[in-house]
C-alpha cells in the first residue's frame, strides 16, 4: 500500500514567543526502509559512533544549553508571583519576586566537582524543597579564579540569609571544609589580627577587622560561604538573569590581550618594541591560557533545574483555518519581531498581551497548558 506524506501546520506557545512549523505525518503509516543489497527491512538505524563524545565543555555554556536555560528562566519567572516579606531586623516590609543565591567553599577544594555536586549541592536543593517549599529553581556551576567550584542558584522563595549560611556550612562540612577553614584561620591569626594585603583592594581594612572579630566570636565555625539577595530593582529581570546564568569565560583574544598587557608592563617593554616581542609574547600567552583552561575546566553538569522546568515543550496544537486567521491577526496587530527559517518561524509575542491583540483562543490554549502541567492559573494570580 502506498503511503502519503502529509504536512500539518502546528504552533507551539511559550511565555514570550509563538513558533509555527509543519508536523510530518504518514498516511496510513510510514513506509518501511529496505536494504538495497539484502532486501531486508531496516527497523532501526544505529548511531553507535555518536555515543562516545570527545566534547569537553570546560565550563562553557553551549548554544543548546543556553536555549534551555533561557526557557527554564522564562517559565520560572512566569510561575513565580510577587511576594511581601517583613524583615525580622528592621520590621520593614518589602516586595520581591525571586532570590539569587551564591554558594562557595570555605577552604581549598580537595574533592572532585562531581563529588561536590552530588554530596553538597544536591543535598542543599533537597533541603530547600523540604524546609522552604521551593518549587522551581535553576542552578549554574562556575570556577573561581582560585580553582574552587561555586554555584549560583535562582529560587522562587524567600530564605533568611543566616539560616541559608548555617545550612550550607553544615552540608559542606560533611566533607570537612568548615573544619579546614577553622584550622587555616586560627593559624593565620595565631598572633592576633593579621591583615590580608592581597585582598585590600576588594576587602578594605575595616571590614577585615570586623570579619576577624566575628570569626573569633563564633570560633571560626561560621564562614561567610553564602550570599543571597532578592532581585526586585532591576527593570528587566529576565535579561539580567539570562546574561548572568549563561555567561562564558573570556574569549582567547581577550585573554591574550590582557596577558600581553601584563607581560609588557612586567618587562617594561616600550610600545615600539612590542612588535619585536610579538611571537614570544604569543607563545607565553598560549601556555598561560592552556594552563588557565585546565584550571578552570569543570567535570560533569554545569547547570540544572527542577524536574518540571527540565524539558518544557510548551503548548502545542495543530492549526486549523480559524486559529490560523487569529494568529495572523495577532502578528499583524502586534508588529512583533520575527525569525524565519525554511522549516519554522518564531514570533516574539508576550502571551499576556494576546487577549488585547485578538488572540483569545491562543491565550486560552497556553493558560490551559500551564494549569494542566504546573497547576498554575494565570487569571487567579493577576486577580491577587
Q: Overview of this structure, please?
A:
With 384 residues, the protein is an alpha+beta fold. It has three domains: 4-36 and 313-383, no CATH class; 63-246, Alpha-Beta Plaits; 250-264 and 278-297, no CATH class. Helices cover 41% and strands 19% of the residues. The strands form four sheets. The protein has a five-stranded antiparallel beta sheet with strand order 12-1-2-14-13. It has a five-stranded antiparallel beta sheet with strand order 10-7-9-8-11, sandwiched between helices. A hairpin with a 3-residue loop joins strand 13 and strand 14 (344-347).
Features:
384 residues, alpha+beta, Alpha-Beta Plaits, 3 domains, 5-stranded antiparallel sheet, 12 helices, disordered C terminus
Oligomer: single chain
- What is the radius of gyration? 27 Å
Strands in their spatial order, largest beta sheet: 12-1-2-14-13
Whole-number average pLDDT?
81
CATH architecture of the largest domain: 2-Layer Sandwich
The CATH topology annotation of the largest domain reads as Alpha-Beta Plaits
Order of helices and strands: EEEEHEEEHEEHHHEHHHEHEHEEHH
| pLDDT < 50 stretches | 49-57, 380-384
Measured distance between first and last alpha carbons: 58 Å
What gross morphology would you assign? Answer: globular
Helix/strand/pairing category: alpha+beta
Question: What percent of residues are in strands?
Answer: 15-25%
How many domain regions? 3
Let me know the largest β-sheet.
5 strands, antiparallel
Q: In total, how many beta strands?
A: 14
Amino acid at each position: 500500500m502506498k503511503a502519503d506524506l502529509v504536512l500539518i501546520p502546528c504552533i507551539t506557545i511559550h511565555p514570550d514567543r509563538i513558533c509555527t512549523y509543519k508536523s510530518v505525518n504518514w498516511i496510513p503509516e510510514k513506509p518501511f526502509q529496505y536494504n538495497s543489497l539484502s532486501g531486508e527491512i531496516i527497523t532501526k538505524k544505529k548511531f553507535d559512533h555518536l555515543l562516545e563524545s570527545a566534547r569537553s565543555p570546560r565550563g562553557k555554556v553551549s548554544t543548546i544549553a543556553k536555549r534551555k536555560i533561557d526557557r527554564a528562566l522564562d517559565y520560572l519567572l512566569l510561575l513565580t508571583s510577587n511576594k511581601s516579606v517583613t524583615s525580622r531586623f528592621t520590621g520593614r516590609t518589602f516586595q520581591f519576586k525571586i532570590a539569587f543565591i551564591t554558594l562557595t567553599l570555605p577552604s581549598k577544594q580537595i574533592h572532585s566537582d562531581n563529588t561536590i555536586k552530588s554530596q553538597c549541592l544536591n543535598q542543599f536543593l533537597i533541603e530547600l524543597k523540604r524546609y522552604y517549599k521551593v518549587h522551581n529553581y535553576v542552578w549554574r556551576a562556575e570556577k573561581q579564579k582560585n580553582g574552587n567550584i561555586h554555584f549560583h542558584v535562582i529560587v522562587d522563595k524567600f530564605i533568611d540569609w543566616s539560616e541559608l549560611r548555617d545550612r550550607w556550612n553544615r552540608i559542606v562540612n560533611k566533607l570537612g571544609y568548615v573544619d579546614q577553614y577553622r584550622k587555616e584561620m586560627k593559624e593565620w591569626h595565631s598572633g592576633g589580627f593579621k591583615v590580608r594585603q592581597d585582598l585590600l583592594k576588594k576587602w578594605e581594612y575595616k571590614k577585615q577587622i570586623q570579619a576577624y572579630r566575628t570569626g573569633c566570636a563564633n570560633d571560626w565555625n561560621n564562614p561567610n560561604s553564602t550570599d543571597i539577595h532578592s532581585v526586585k530593582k532591576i527593570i528587566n529581570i529576565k535579561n539580567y538573569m539570562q546574561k548572568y546564568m549563561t555567561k562564558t569565560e573570556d574569549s582567547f583574544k581577550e585573554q591574550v590581550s590582557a596577558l600581553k598587557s601584563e607581560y609588557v608592563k612586567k618587562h617594561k617593554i616600550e610600545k615600539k618594541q612590542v612588535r619585536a616581542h610579538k611571537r614570544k609574547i604569543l607563545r607565553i600567552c598560549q601556555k598561560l591560557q592552556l594552563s588557565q583552561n585546565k584550571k578552570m575546566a569543570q567535570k560533569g553538569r554545569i547547570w540544572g533545574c527542577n524536574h518540571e522546568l527540565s524539558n518544557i515543550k510548551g503548548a502545542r496544537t495543530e492549526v486549523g483555518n480559524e486559529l490560523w486567521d487569529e494568529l495572523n491577526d495577532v502578528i499583524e496587530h502586534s508588529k512583533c519581531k520575527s525569525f524565519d527559517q525554511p522549516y519554522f518561524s518564531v514570533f516574539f509575542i508576550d502571551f499576556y498581551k494576546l487577549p488585547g491583540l485578538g488572540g483569545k483562543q491562543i491565550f486560552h490554549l497556553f493558560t490551559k497548558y500551564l494549569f494542566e502541567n504546573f497547576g498554575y492559573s494565570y487569571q487567579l494570580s493577576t486577580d491577587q
